Structure formats: structure tokens, C-alpha cells
Amino acid sequence: MPAVSALPSDRPRVLSGVQPTGSLHLGNWLGAIRNWVDLQTSHDTYFCVVDLHAITVPHDPGRLAEDTLSTAALYLACGIDPERSTVFVQSHVSAHSELCWLLNCVTPLNWLERMIQFKEKALRQGADVSAGLLDYPVLMAADILLYDADRVPVGEDQKQHLELARDIAQQRINARFGSKDAEGELIPILKVPEPLILREGARVMSLSDGRSKMSKSDPNEGSRINLLDPPELISRKIKRAKTDPQMGLEFGNAERPEADNLLGLYALLAGRSREAVAAECAAMGWGAFKPLLAEAAVAALSPLQERYRDLRSDPLYLQSVLRQGRDRASEVAAATLARVRQSLGFLAIP
Ligand code: TYM
SS3 of 204, please? Predict the structure, then answer.
């Protein structure tokens, strides 16, 4: 395994993360991680495994550490290069929790109650909803704002959380606590980040219902393809995926969400343009299409799974990556936190 080296840092900065809840799926890869890989050449990139977010719903303490390691290994297996990116675990940098508290105290409660993901998850959990689940987007804002991130590559479902992070930075911190320069211009305390949501892959839908998104929390395993699913299982899930009675695959027909989703997956997994796959599959029946899609999925995931197995066979290397990531991330985070503490008027003693 290569040694981990120092990073240049004069480029625009990117931060993103995935929760270590169970296995990552095609939506996480195509909507988020795949896009992180290209950004490494042009940006100063920070990728964290957001384990504090994973405990906002009931979790199994016997699995958290293993799922955290497995998620970090998947980042690397997908092409995140620790020589170019800072890869770390959110709970290893305590500034995330501390900034979250400071932001909590300036964030209106009704901003959080409006969040669609909160409403959906709270509905599923009934009476057992934790305060942490409501606070989830404030912790996410802390993750982003600590690193002065310019851009945040995520899937479509995170857009509302990103807007919240922008509003907290702009309206609740900079506008209230920022100072003015000699010309009366506001000197911001926190950088206001931009979302980076690519059109293709930003919303991968469930295999069992083309109108709902592929999700880790769907109790039906057959609704998603996990990145570590073996080839036979991938084929079986695709074989059982929901279809419709029409011949021919097509994009953009609102009556045929499954055709749109599976054709889109085929284009992304085979690395071909949407026009090319639409032409190839325009007259194809589902019976001919599904094996093609399964083949493309297996071919796309096999090399990633092989790299994953290699990485898991060398736990010391993975630990060294996460240790170095923690140290680098802590330095950046501490500087931002100190700035916010000072602006909010906390006593500092030398
Ligand atoms: P998580 O773990 O739910 O999702 C991780 C990433 O995967 C994307 N994603 C999808 N993209 C396309 N289609 C889907 N079906 C699909 N499902 C998930 C998500 O949009 C996300 O980009 N709250 C974040 C984690 C987080 C974070 C952050 C992200 C915590 N702090 C700071 C960016 C910056 C989340 O959704 O995790």
C-alpha cells in the first residue's frame, strides 16, 4: 500500500460524507461517491464517515465500529485516494459536536421541523423519535462549515439540508456576529457553501418502486443493490425488479418510472451516454434488457469489490489513513471553531 503524504491546499475545498448505516448502495455511489473521485484532481477534498449521524436512529453498538471501517474502505475502493484527500471519521474530530451545539443555539426550531427527511423518518419511528434526529441537519451544517467548504457534492435528497447550512452560515452567524471592514462591508465568519448535485445519478430509485428513492432504510433488501452484493445476488435482484407491461425502454415517460430508472442505471453502470442506451433499448423487451443491466452492474462493481477485499485484509493501512485524516481534519476544524467561539464572545484564556 502507498504511504500517505502531505496535501497542497490552495484549491477550492470540497467536503462530503456518508452514514455508516449498513451497506452502501448504488444510490450512494452514483449520487455521491463517484462524483467525489473526479473532484480530487481540482479541489482540496475532505471526506468523512458520518458516524454521529448514524446514531440519530436506533443503532446496534456491536456494529457501529465495523460499519464505520467498512464505509471508509469503500471510499478508498471507489477511488478516493488518501494521498490526495483527507479521509476521516466524524466522531474522531470533536469540533463537529462542539460547533453543532453553537449552531443549535442560533438555529430556529421551526427551520428544523420543516425538513422533509425529518418528517419522513419521524413518521416511521412514531413515539421514539430522538432530539438527535431533529438536529441531524445542524450537525451536517457543522460538518460542512468547519472546513470552509466551497462545494458539497451530494445526491438530490440532501438539497434542503444544504440550503439550511447556507442559511445558518449567512443569516444566523455571519449577519449577526460578523464584523465590518473600513468600507462597511461584512467580514464573514463562515464560508457559505454551494451544493454540487449532478443531473445524472442524483436520484437513483428503488428497484421495487420507481417512484421512491433507493434507500438504506427500506426494509425490503430487494429494493436496492448494495456495493458489496455478490454477482448472483445482483442478478437475482435485477431479475425481480419491478417492471411494467410495455415493450421497449425509454426515458422521461412519467407513467413508466421503472423504465426511466433502470435505463438510467444501465447508462451510468455501462459508462455510456443516455442517447446510446435509449437507442439500443428502444424496442427491447424487459426479458432481454434485465440480463444486460445485470451484466453491466456486475462488471462495474467487481473491481471495486476486489479493491475492497484487499483493503480489508490490511487493517493497519486503513487505520493509518484514518489517523492521518483525523489529524489533518482536526487542524482545519480547530481553526474554524476558534473563529466562531471568538465571534460569539466566549472567554479565552491563554
Ligand atoms: P446518506 O448516508 O443518507 O447518503 C450519502 C450520500 O448518498 C446520496 N444518496 C443518493 N443519491 C442518489 N440516489 C439515491 N437513492 C441516494 N441515496 C443517498 C445522498 O444524497 C448523500 O450524498 N446527510 C448526509 C450525510 C452527511 C453529509 C454531511 C453529506 C452528513 N454530513 C456533510 C455532505 C456533507 C446523507 O444523506 O447521508
Answer: coil
| Ligand 1 center from residue 155 Cα (angstroms) | 6
201 pLDDT band, cuts 50/70/90, is: confident
Given a contact cutoff of 8 angstroms between Cβ atoms, the answer to whether 325 and 82 are in contact is yes
The yes-or-no verdict on residue 139 having pLDDT over 60 is: yes
Distance 187 CA to ligand 1 centre (A): 31
On the CB side of 42, CA atoms within 13 Å amount to 7
Q: Is 216 helix (H, G, I), strand (E, B) or coil?
A: coil
Instruction: For Cα atoms 99, 101, 105, give the angle at the middle one, nearest 5 degrees.
Output: 115
CA–CA separation, 153 and 155 (whole Å): 7
pLDDT tens, residue by residue, 263-281:
999 999 999 999 999 999 9
Tell me if 15 CB under 6 Å of ligand 1.
Answer: yes
Instruction: Please tell me if the CB atom of residue 4 comes closer than 6 angstroms to any atom of ligand 1.
Output: no
How far is 270 from 265, CA to CA, in rounded Å?
Answer: 8
